[in-house]
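The material for today's practical consists of a large collection of protein records. There is nothing in a record beyond a sequence line and a structure line. As an example, a complete record with its sequence and its structure tokens follows:
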Amino acid sequence: MSEEQGFITRSIHAGEAEHTSATPIYQAATVDGAYLRGSNPTFTAFEEKMCTLEGGGRSIATACGMASVTQAVMTLISAGSRIVCHQTTYSWTRRFMAEELPRLGFDVEIIDMRVPKQLDTALEKPADVVYFEPLANPTLDIIDTPTVIRKAHAAGAKVVIDNTFLSPHLFRPMDHGADVVLHSATKYLCGHGDALAGIITTRDPDLGEEIVRTRNTYGGILSPLNAFLLLRGIKTLSIRMDRHVENARAVADFLESHPRIRRTWYPGLPSTPGHEVARSQWTGYGGMVSFELAERAVDRFLDRVRLCRPWVSLGDVGSLVTGDREGQRVRMSVGLEDTDDIIRDLEQALE
């Protein structure tokens, strides 16, 4: 499809089969002589759709978000490589960076990319990969993406960005020069909590083919059924994300004024560090809210919610809350329910 067509149009039509109302599920190990580990018409359609939406050169579907992280990074590094990573990332990404890669002999420096001096100092030594999330999980750190990309490229590093929290509807890192953008497609891209998936998009098609080789080597293949669910979910991505943003802002406003909440983090709140970066670079602030209770009552709060589910994951149509039951901070994935119903549930849980 043409880039001249709008994002919503492309999210509905790009990659889809021409002669059926929905792309079929090719539930087969081999299709037209091609083995599933290398390609399958259903997940190829998902890859084509995502490549169009990201504005990239090649997309590669994977079994889950961590398969995307590991396959992308492992393709870009070799013996002696050095990686610079933001201090806050998804917990299993953090383990991969802080434990697994050093165990294999790679040099990983973990810094706060919100502090320009730390990034400048880290890039004084040669680096192969700079890795971060523009809106970091779970603390909602906001990273100045164009600045980090510019500095990383000047130092000769490739930039890998996990854009799960925003989706290409709200922010396209490729537009700012990112080399690789990935998602846990389980979250907002799918949007319904019914499929585990990951997706990698590269600016350079040749790099994309190298990652396909890595996928074939390590495994981590997306199932045709899950690809079908992703194709269906992405058709409503824009509508869902706009609703997530609307509800999240209302929830953030409610929490910021609540006497039992010590502090609220949401990119759309002027009080949140990095708000001006988000306002100038994104088309919306996302559906994730973080808040700190005035007392150590996370355990009690999680036990009292009724509409919101005290579960991990995020990006579902339903609202989800999670946190350290021994601590004070809660991460909330604000869903698509009636706004007043979400707020009433939070209000009674905070009583």
